[in-house]
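Example 4.3 (complexes with small molecules)
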Amino acid sequence: MMADRLDVLIVGAGFSGMYMLLKCREQGLKVRVIEAGSGVGGTWYWNRYPGARVDIQSLDYSFGFDENLEKEWRWSERYAPQPELLAYANHVADRFDLKKDISFHTKVTAAHWDAAADAWNVTLDNGEVIPARFVVMATGCLSVPTDVSFPGIEDYKGTIYRTSKWPHGGVDFSGQRVGIIGTGSSAIQSIPIIAESAAHLTVFQRTPNYSTPAHNGPIPEDDYKEWLADPRAFGARSRATSGGFWNDASADALATQTAPDDIKAELERRWAWGGFRILSGYVDQAIDPAANKIIADFIAGKIREQVKDPKVADLLTPKDHPFGTKRPCVDTGYYATYNRDNVELIDLRADPLERFTATGIKTKDHSFDFDAVVLATGFDAMTGAIERIDIRGVNGETIKEHWAAGPETYLGLMVAGFPNLFLITGPGSPSVLTNMINSIEQHVDYVARIIAHLNASQAGRIEASREAEQTWTDHCDQMAAMTLFTQTNSWYMGANVPGKPRRFMAYTGGLDVYTNICNTVADKGWEGFVIARGDQVLHESRKFDSLPPPPENMAPHLLDMAMGRVAAWMQEHGRV
Ligand code: FAD
Ligand code: N01
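Answer. The structure with 3-acetylpyridine adenine dinucleotide bound is encoded below.
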């Protein structure tokens, strides 16, 4: 069944898809959104597990494109809980009357480029095929759970829940024996709440994570006043940072060159403020292992302070990765939960999980009976949702084939050989290293600008050149190689999915730097892009020349360390 041709087909109705829809409407485009779920909100639609909330303060994690929207919405807490975030998504959808252009309960299964028409033929799981000039993948970076399974799981007679597909009516664990597998952000948020109602909770931990306290509560008075005085300026300040949120970042302080008492005072101040502030006290933390260890040791001390049993505290202390190289967690009462009589921690490194049984889980040394097991086992991040769609570009190559060695993009926005296909917060953009809502707005605004430009110049298509894609991908790889990020088996590196190519997937240069690069590319007349109509090439700029200059203010020893790692990377990848 072939539908009428659209100007733009958007996949996904999370914050990315919703805002993209609005921007397309502003241009009078014929647009439709396809969403697998039955409502808007994406992440906040699916992840309804107990304790789910943002780890970026809500005042920052809000759209900034409409002054009236900002003024009429009030967050009730510093870190909004999932129901409120979902209510916000619905408020945005209703306020701008978005739902009428969204097809819910529908999945995009394929998108094939039709060169003769300068358009995509998009196939849905209901059999419909929709021709669309542009396709926007607003499919989310953390929207597809990993395919994790365990021997014997089909024999288990109790109930299995996934944090990322939580039942809409909630779950009552009162009086139940519950097991939870995983100790990432989802688990760390849900464990304290599940422990309050369950008769007994067993946490299966393979790798401990660093977590800092949210100190959730009312929005801090000072922040609120500042926001009220000028929401525009508040948002602009956030967007001009590397992380897309104001984090009181130090410009040049080095942990290795600061007196221990001063470091302690500074880290205590940041710990007391809560959340991610601890990440941005010292500029050498992300590059110099010695500096990183100072902060990691401080957090280890905080874990010991909170957990009464020293053996449990030790098990909960990360030892295999530098602080910040996995996304740090932000918790409410996580460590103290292990002081409860009804909570136990099982170290899967010492006592590996062997199988599920009819009544629970068998590890090497123990058997456990559970009424319910929660899988908080994570996502096939950044590429998972895109690669699950059969996307075929100009040569019939699939995007999965194009990314066989890891994702390669131009600016995280487009892929060579896949014209008129845009990624929102795709691999190669700052994305998951930032306050996502600000990254989403920047990307959507930019894609809307590209589409407007093409329409104004009566062009049929835009494509990233392979040269520009290669230069950008090398730049992303080199920027990541400077840091400690690449030394850790994280989902950022694709390491949580067996067989997934190992590449640090986000751009580490910061949202501020990245935004400038994107604007320069546009100002220079769409550098790195080929713009055409049918056989006629209207604009051809194959090289990308707008790399940012090397960091100016970096301490010499840090620069040496970072450049040494880049040189090693170049050698290893034959780029010398
Ligand atoms: P999503 O919200 O993931 O939406 C993508 C949508 O696309 C989904 O609804 C999905 O169903 C749909 N979709 C995917 N594939 C298809 C298909 N083939 N066909 C049809 N529909 C499809 N970021 C932060 O900055 N701060 C936070 O505090 C934060 N907390 C998070 C907490 C959790 C539990 C998770 C999982 C992520 C969190 N994130 C956070 C990241 C979060 O994903 C982003 O902030 C943001 O919500 C992403 O919006 P999005 O619209 O790009 O993607
Ligand atoms: O997933 P994760 P998540 N056997 O990948 C374990 C965002 N988010 O859903 O580390 C045993 O972090 C795995 O162990 P290991 C945020 O960006 C934000 O928690 O592989 N264990 C790990 O402990 C976050 O980073 C919030 O050894 C297995 C866990 O499962 C991202 O989403 C809240 C296993 C997975 O942790 C993902 O977080 C929630 C196996 N076979 C999510 N397989 C906020 O706070 C996996 N594990 C805003």
